[in-house]
Specification:
The structure holds two protein chains of two kinds.
Chain A (H helix, E strand, L loop, with lengths): L1 H22 L57 H4 L4 H4 L48 H13 L1
Chain B lengths: L1 H12 L7 H25 L3 H5 L2 H11 L15 H5 L4 H10 L1 H9 L5 H21 L3 H4 L14 H11 L6 H4 L18
The chains are: A mainly alpha, B mainly alpha.
């Protein structure tokens, strides 16, 4: 009796999963079969100017509006900081690394960028003008809020 | 020994008995041309990428790093080879640099950088020599190809335009001041001015 109820449950799960699979077939970003060599996508240039892209949400790490090809960021050197470090912003005119980056994990502010925030490209990335591989229906919070408030008013 | 030297000195200082003046003059000229040609050919042979890369110290370290940069391969197919940046093009300067390079032969023989670790330990010192050299000659080797006169800043990114107008055209800075590590990886830059 016990075994049969287990079987029944797994059968139910499989059939539900199967239904879901049938209604929305899994698609792939791959243009050719995995064992075939596909044509490489065209290489496009990075956005390269000094115009800030606005953040899509307040916590978003700002994007890098310029080309950073060949910029060395490792234990030896950090090319980004040769313009964005506090002491360098006078000459470079670049925005200073945010003060939040000076804080270590104990909440103590250090004199310079904290080691945990040293590798800029972990969060900040340069941009390319390309067609996104998957659609995105992200709505900016400012656009979203009025709609909600009108709904509430109604 | 002294007598031997005296004998040869006598031969050199006495006028020729068997050969005519014309033969000696022309012969000397031809021998000079051959010697000079040979010297310059040998000099140029040491001034090629192939020659530099024939040592594993160059091939496995700095040359391997150059390969990923724009000075090695690019859209227009012009390559800056090792001597284009590291050896002056003018003859007198080139000879001076080549004489300094005899130190590199010493280094090769005694294996001062014959392993990756030894090379990395010495890298800052070696890099500092090159930075000092380029700073002193106002980045001459950069300017052999990149001159301010032919630099069309309207074709540059706004960032580059601003920096070049502010620092390069005013003569406040020279190429190497900002463009360190464009062809090779950088050593530990802590303590180097303008680096964090």
């Amino acid at each position: 009796m016990k075994i049969s109820s287990k079987w029944l449950l797994s059968l139910a799960i499989i059939s539900i999963a199967g239904m879901a699979y049938a209604s929305e077939p899994i698609t792939t970003l791959r243009s050719t079969a995995p064992d075939q060599e596909s044509a490489a996508p065209r290489i496009t240039n990075f956005e390269d100017n000094s115009i800030k892209r606005p953040r899509n949400y307040p916590e978003q790490p700002p994007t890098i509006p310029h080309d950073i090809e060949g910029y060395q960021i490792d234990g030896n050197a950090n090319k980004c900081l040769s313009c964005h470090a506090r002491s360098r912003t006078g000459d470079s005119g670049a925005p200073m690394v945010s003060i939040t980056h000076f804080m270590d994990r104990d909440g103590q502010f250090l004199a310079a960028v904290s080691p945990r925030r040293y590798f800029c490209t972990q969060c900040h990335v340069p941009q390319k003008d390309v067609k996104p591989l998957v659609g995105n229906d992200f709505i900016d919070i400012d656009k979203l809020l009025p709609t909600n408030s009108t709904r509430i008013a109604e | 020994m002294i007598n031997l030297l005296k004998r040869y000195w006598k031969i050199l200082t006495t006028p020729s008995v068997h050969y005519s003046l014309a033969f000696l003059t022309l012969g000397g000229f031809v021998a000079g041309v051959i010697f000079w040609g040979g010297f310059n050919t040998a000099l140029e042979a040491t001034n090629t990428e192939e020659f530099c890369v024939s040592c594993h110290e160059m091939k496995n370290n700095v040359f391997a790093e150059l390969k990923t940069t724009i000075h090695y391969s690019n859209r227009s197919g012009v390559r800056a080879t090792c001597p284009d940046c590291h050896v002056p093009h003018k003859w007198t300067d080139k000879i001076a640099r080549k004489m300094q390079a005899s130190k590199e032969v010493w280094g090769k023989i005694f294996g001062t950088i014959n392993t990756r670790d030894k090379f990395l330990d010495k890298r800052l010192e070696l890099a500092q020599h090159e930075w000092a050299r380029l700073k002193a000659n106002n980045s001459l080797e950069c300017r052999n190809c990149h001159s301010d006169e032919s630099m069309d800043i309207t074709r540059q990114s706004p960032r580059a335009v601003e920096a070049h107008q502010k620092f390069l055209f005013t003569g406040e800075k020279t190429c190497i001041d900002c463009h360190k590590g464009i062809a090779h990886h950088l050593p530990d830059m802590s303590g180097v001015p303008e680096w964090q």
